[in-house]
Design a protein that fits this description.
Distance between the termini: 47 Å
Number of strands: 0
Strand content: under 5%
Radius of gyration: 19 Å
Largest sheet: none
Mean pLDDT: 78
Number of domains: 2
Structural class: mainly alpha
Number of helices: 13
Order of helices and strands: HHHHHHHHHHHHH
Length: 230
């Protein structure tokens, strides 16, 4: 059995196994070592050694096809041909790929969330950058904490329902907030959730997602978000 390894490193090993199956354990260990410190969760510790990578490569082979595919990078038409995404998701996937052209393709799990958000937004003019940030936030929570917190789902629900990217939707949302503040509770997300588990880059994505979804009305999360927004 492999020794206890932080979930961040396990995920990176599995991504390597799924997208570059020809890479040896030594090559994967070298790639992990090259990940900048600011992109690693503080709690993750040092990258695993080659012998640990060998153990997790064996574990990866024991995953189901459905589990393996979530670590695959989303590309068109491969993601749809393989069944990882339905063909109906192709327009959303292409939008996301264009948005991420500078950074490379997203994981299947991120593309899947973006597609769901895109469909729910029901607006071709919905801001791709905001939906992509929220999709990335959902993926980060799934990878690090095992599930997306209900608070983020609730906030995103109202962001989509009111179409907060439009002036009319934002104004209506604010009007109802003033009339019925208790109907739109603002959780203290950075106290209630294990924020320390995220790297600075992941934290920025999640923080952006929460603010975009309207969870910073009272400004009590502002100190955590300094440097993320002007």
């Amino acid at each position: 059995m492999p020794k206890l390894t932080h979930r961040f490193w396990v995920g990176r090993i599995y991504e390597q196994c799924e997208n570059w199956p020809e890479h040896s354990a030594e090559e994967i260990a070298d790639r992990l070592l090259a990940i900048p410190t600011n992109e690693r969760p503080a709690a993750a510790g040092s990258p695993p050694m080659t012998r640990t990578v060998v153990d997790y490569k064996k574990r990866f082979q024991g995953l189901t096809p459905e589990e393996k595919v979530t670590y695959r990078y989303a590309r068109w038409p491969d993601a749809c041909e393989s069944g990882a995404l339905p063909w109906e998701a192709a327009p959303a996937l292409l939008r996301l790929l264009a948005h991420r052209a500078e950074f490379g393709p997203p994981a299947i799990s991120t593309a899947r969330w973006f597609w769901r958000l895109w469909v729910a937004a029901d607006d071709r003019n919905a801001p791709v950058d905001m939906l992509a940030a929220i999709a990335s936030g959902f993926t980060v929570y799934e990878q690090v904490s095992g599930a997306v917190p209900r608070a983020l789902f609730d906030a995103t629900q109202w962001y989509l329902a009111f179409k907060d990217w439009t002036d009319a939707g934002k104004n209506e949302h604010r009007r109802l907030l003033n009339l019925h503040p208790d109907a739109f509770p603002e959780p203290d997300i950075f106290e209630d959730l294990e924020f320390i588990e995220f790297s600075s880059e992941q934290a920025e994505l999640v923080a952006k997602a929460f603010v975009l979804a309207g969870l910073d009305r009272e400004g009590r999360n502002r100190s955590v978000l300094e440097g993320v927004f002007p």
